[in-house]
Structure to design on (64 residues):
């Protein structure tokens, strides 16, 4: 998954600068298929994280 900054660069270069998908992919070091995928998407992808199964640090006590 690409970061939102990169997807913004893809759409900006296509809609404002009128660059081809091939040029965009070459400039951003992406595959053409990936650039096409994000251009054809209706909305920008949102970050989704699954629930964390357990705490990484575990429980601890505060010493005073």
């Amino acid at each position: 998954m690409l970061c939102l900054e990169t997807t913004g660069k893809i759409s900006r270069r296509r809609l404002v600068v009128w660059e081809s998908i091939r040029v965009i992919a070459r400039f951003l070091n992406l595959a053409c298929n990936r650039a096409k995928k994000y251009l054809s998407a209706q909305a920008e992808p949102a970050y989704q994280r699954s629930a964390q199964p357990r705490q990484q640090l575990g429980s601890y006590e505060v010493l005073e």
Q: What stands out?
A: DSSP finds three helices and no strands in the chain. The CA atoms of residues 23 and 29 lie 10 Å apart. Residues 4-15 form the longest helix (12 residues). The chain has a mean pLDDT of 82.
